[in-house]
Amino acid sequence: MRKLLILTAAVALAHVLLLGGLPSGIGFHVGNPDSAPDLHFETRTIDEPPAVARPTPPHAPPRPAPHAAPKPIAPAPEPPAPAATVDPTPAVAAPGPTDAVDAAPAVAATAPQPPASALAVLAAAKPEPPASASVTPSPLVASTAAAAGAEVRRAQKVSYSEPVRLLYDGKGEEKGYIKYAASGELLWQPDTLQYTAKLELSAFGFRLRTWTSKGELTDSGLQPTRFGDKPRGAEQATHFQRDKGIISFSANNPDVPLQAGAQDKLSAMLQLSAMVAGEPARYPAGSVISFQAADAHRAELWDFKAGTPESMELPGGTLMVVRFVKEPTVEFDQRIEVWLAPDMHYLPVRIRITEASGAFADLLWRKSQKPD
Questions:
Q1: 324-344: per-residue pLDDT in tens?
Q2: Residue 212: other Cβ atoms inside 10 A
Q3: How far apart are the C-alpha atoms of 325 and 305, rounded to whole Å?
Q4: Total-model pTM
């Protein structure tokens, strides 16, 4: 019996060793052999560094190293289905220089196209022209386009009318809501080699503004020497100093170079009249008459574009007229429209001046008189 117990204990120990060895803190104790078999485990504390690995029994199978673990094998991608229209021959032989044009359509037909989402991104990334690009161009662009799209006519022959006083009825508007009835007077007095001119605008019985111009009459047109602009305050003057080749201003603005054929704001309308009266057939619809013009502060290039002849009802009667328009060319510039009447030696029978703010004065011919 005693030998049987010892044999049983030995078998149990062998099983433990085969299962990986005893834990380091567990001991095995056999009781008194003379007494009843007392088989039990007891726990002991052993001061061993935790980093020390327990020995592996020689007969235990070696554990695989971490780097030796088999890697998962990804499934091989399925080959794409061949396109029914692809011809393998062009892919082998690249086209030569003479075949480049003929090969381009086939390449474009078989090239992969980006998905619809990519096309949407490209379309969104492509800068679109601003909305203002499709609307009517600014006044500066419109004036430049008019000069570039038609032949600019210079004065070759002029014809001056007899002295006359033109009286106008009209209307005006200020600040978008102040409307008023207006009247005007244009006095034109040529005298051999000299001239004087005056345009006066009145409303409510008061003079609102007066323009004056004086200068010389030449074979190529008017040559102003002085322009005056008198609102309800003090007059401001512009001087054409031809001996110095400059235009100067009493408003202390910088001098500007004087160009050939330069006019002032009032003489410009009378120069237009003399040029068209001298050669009417030279200025058909769409043609442009261009010259330098100065007001009380600056000088610019004015382009008057001819319109189509039309019939117009005026306070003084019905007349055939031709409209000439000068568009604004700089910020805060005016738009000037002049209607010339062939039956009145192409004198201006209607004058409309529109400010950048929208305020305007519109004068329509009512009567003609001889100057006093």
A1: 999 998 888 999 999 999 999
A2: 19
A3: 5
A4: 0.61
